[in-house]
Amino acid sequence: MADLTFYTNPQSRGRIVRWMLEELGEPYETEVIDYADIKSDRYRAVNPMGKVPAITHRGKVVTEVAAICTYLAAVFPHAGLGPRDDEKADYYRWMFFAAGPIEAAVSNKAMGWEPPPERERMFGYGNFDRAIGVLDALFSDRDYVCGDRFTAADIYVGSQIMFPMQFKMLPESDSFVRYRDRLQARAAYKRATEIDEKIIAEMQPAQPQPA
Ligand SMILES: N[C@@H](CCC(=O)N[C@@H](CS)C(=O)NCC(=O)O)C(=O)O
User: Which atom of ligand 1 is nearest to the CA of 12?
Assistant: First the structure.
């Protein structure tokens, strides 16, 4: 039995962690949490928020996608997904930028809400266009978060760009499209997508058969 358990639903941010796990190459077990059971006492014993994804490893729980990616890269250093010393500034800076300001900017925008200009100073992201513009500029002069090498930060930051782009919530700018295409060409990304799509297909209720 693997020491690493992954709690997910294939139609959730758990897809980011699946990609991370496939990049990592360590054995793990998946426990699919149906949305109907996500607030059960049993699952809230793992994540009291009743949200996926979560992992358990060495008897501890880790929740929050950005924390899970950062944790796994740190505890399995041989996978080379964590930052070298000279990459740490970019790695932590953009990982936290994506988990805080970008997540809030995108979800507020998806709800049709933006801070009024006179209140922008209260919000970590200021306004949507400025925060997204900073990310766009970042990838116009580098291939990856830390420069020329793929790290776990690309799994998280890249996903925070790719998912909203898929739903037309981010502009298909040259820099975002180049970054997305680079990430989606990765074998582990493709493998993770296939695994989750297969689980989704298996979860579909059986179609009624003609009499
Ligand atoms: N900040 C959390 C967000 C987790 C989250 O909101 N997960 C959603 C699916 S993408 C969920 O479990 N929703 C079910 C619910 O809230 O009932 C993270 O990064 O892991």
Answer: 10
Here the tokens at position 204 are 């579909």
What are the tens digits of pLDDT across the range 16-64? 999 999 999 999 999 999 999 999 999 999 999 999 999 999 999 999 9
pTM: 0.96
Which residue lies with its CA nearest to atom 17 of ligand 1? 51
Q: How far apart are CA 167 and CA 67, in angstroms?
A: 25
The answer to whether the beta carbons of residues 184 and 17 sit under 8 Å apart is no
Structural tokens at position 156: 């998280």
Angle at 93 between CA 169 and CA 121, to 5 degrees: 65
Among 6, 7, 9, 13, name the best residue to mutate to test ligand 1's pocket (greatest count of ligand atoms within 8 A of Cβ): 13
Regarding beta strands 29-32 and 4-8, do their DSSP bridges make them parallel or antiparallel, or are they unpaired? parallel
